[in-house]
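Entry 14. Structure prediction run on the chain below.
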Amino acid sequence: MVKEDFSDESSQCSNFAFMMNKQLQTDIKTIVQPTDILEQYNTNATTIHYILHNLFRGLKTTRRKYRLTINEIIFLNGVYLYCKHESTCISQDACLRFIGYYNLNKIKYYIGSLRGKGMIEIAEVINGYNRYKLTPLGISVIHDIGGSFEICLYDWFNKYNICL
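Output returned:
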């Protein structure tokens, strides 16, 4: 075993990579992990409560008007985003990868449910795989979400005297 003396750094730099002795460094800063995971995102539980509260209140009129569940609206929104930004239609596997919240059985359930309600339809069949797209009714649900949120947030800000 050969022992190398690295005390003369200038002569050794040409042959070996320069390695620092990390035990001699005194100005190392350690990162303190927050005790509450919400602190990482600079938020608190109350803020999340208000977000979820307004999410359910904002979607209330859309849910009642079209007789949809929150999960169906989330799934429909995922299909809309995929069809708008990725491709013109979406398959079950693409739903599984893109939305990422549901397993394959739930994907199949929501596709069947939304097809039954006339929100999505089969656009094409490629190699035996169905690809789906939104119907005009499904697109109207997506547009209605924005309007119902604007009304909900307007009422909520006025109720608590919040000015933006």
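The first strand starts at residue 90 and ends at 91.
Filed with the rest of this week's runs.
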